[in-house]
Amino acid sequence: MIKPWKILESKQTFRDQYLGVRTDKCARADGHVVETYHVIQQTPWVTIVPVTDAGNLVLVREYRHGAQKILTALPGGVSDPGETDWEAVGRRELVEETGYEAREMHLIGRCYPNPAIQDNELFYYLALGCTPSAKQSLDPNEEIETLEMPYSEFLAYEDFEVQHALHSAALFYAERYFFKHPELRPNA
Amino acid sequence: MIKPWKTLGSKLTYKDDWLTVRSHRLEQPNGTILDPFHVIEGSEWVCICALTDDGQVLAIREFRVGANAVTLGLVGGGQEPSDSDALSAARRELAEETGYVADELVQIGRAYANWANQDNQISYFLGFGAKPTTQQKLDIGEDIEPVLVPYHEFLAYDFEGPKQTHHAAALFYAERYFKRHPERRPK
Q1: Residue A163 DSSP one-character state
Q2: Other C-beta atoms within 10 Å of B141: how many?
Q3: Contact status, residue B28 vs residue B34, Cβ threshold 8 Å
Q4: pLDDT on residue B67
Q5: B77 class by beta-carbon count within 10 Å (0-12 exposed, 13-18 middle, 19+ buried)
Q6: What phi and psi values does residue B94 have, to the nearest 5 degrees?
Q7: pLDDT for A55
Q8: Are A114 and B111 a contacting pair at CB < 8 A?
Q9: What is the DSSP secondary structure assignment for residue B53, as one 8-state letter?
Q10: Rounded to 5 degrees, what are φ and ψ at A86?
Q11: For residues B127 and A117, which has the higher predicted lDDT (pLDDT)?
Q12: How far apart are CA A173 and CA A110, in angstroms?
């Protein structure tokens, strides 16, 4: 029977404006001590699956420096410290990154991007009835193009040249949701 | 038209046995300088959805420090210098974490773990014919219990406790694979 570990000591190994690393010393239930265990500290993330009434997804193209490539992606972002209204974060990121607004938002999944070494959760929203209704308002570091793509085309994500695991998971949750609510499935 | 950013300089901000952070000085096409932009470096990761001949997923229960909870999930790990490729890493992780060996491992997908600020990718595998044939061989800090769960139950992915993105992604790739190979779908 697996039991939680006890945190014996915890220290801030690294911290600046962008990244926090906490290092714990932990004891297992059997007494074994794990001397060094790093946890990357992040605020919760929100990813949106935005669908238009015509059945297209609203996607963004931007340069992602981890991959050093220009990539096609679902919109989303990071919550500010203290924020807990994930739907509001999702609506804000959608309009800021794409200029589209949603008629309705459905929470379709939540999971840890990496519960081994990272402490935040990711919330997935299906945004229905998306229409372009505002101007993009990007952060200084963001440079984003918007495009529409039929849902069925993006669903064949395993054929994309470069893929993002967090988006494969978004499509998993979207498909689960459409399986339970077939009337909401995009018809494009 | 979106253009790549230019890397003006890089330095190693943090490195030990477990974690490497490299910080870049970047210039965007409009001249904006981003400094520091942290990238967490890592080796290839693997995630394995191994199935037994009677259609059960070989899941594992373990304590995850990031989530501060005992979680139910899939087998996974990182490629080590001794692994010739992702497939051999997957075979090794499966045996070490569960004591099971699969007759066949099929790669079903590959994706960036997080392309915004991590440089590594994760390879997803389906395992067929998994059988308990060896002893678990756990790393220091690992404490893992294998659990068999019927595939359709794991696929519903609505059990208690924290879920993990890479396991949801593995199920996405598994379902796409079974759509193309319906004869291999667990009954």
Answers
A1: -
A2: 17
A3: yes
A4: 85
A5: buried
A6: -60, -50
A7: 97
A8: no
A9: T
A10: -65, -35
A11: B127
A12: 9
Q: Are B42 and B119 in contact (CB under 8 A)?
A: yes
Query: A180: which residues sit within 8 A by CB, 6+ positions away?
Result: none
Q: What is the mean pLDDT of chain A?
A: 92
Most confident listed range (A15-24, A66-75, B7-16, B104-113): B104-113
Quickly tell me which residue has 């004891």 as its tokens: A27
Q: Which amino acid is at A132?
A: P
Q: Are residues A80 and A1 in contact, defined by beta-carbon separation less than 8 angstroms?
A: no
Residue type, B150: P
Which residues share a beta bridge with A145?
A61
How many CB atoms lie under 10 A from the CB of residue A12? 10
Instruction: Render pLDDT for A147-176 as a digit per residue (tens, 0 to 9).
Output: 999 999 999 999 999 999 999 999 999 999
Phi/psi zone of residue B99: left (φ > 0), alpha (ψ -120 to 50 degrees), beta? left
**Looking at residue A137, what is its pLDDT?**
81
Coil, strand or helix at B79: coil
Determine the residue of chain A that is closest to B118 in CA distance: A66
A-contacting residues in B 119-158 (Cβ below 8 Å)? 119, 122, 140-141, 143-145, 156-157
Closest partner residue to A112 among B40, B66, B140, by Cβ? B66
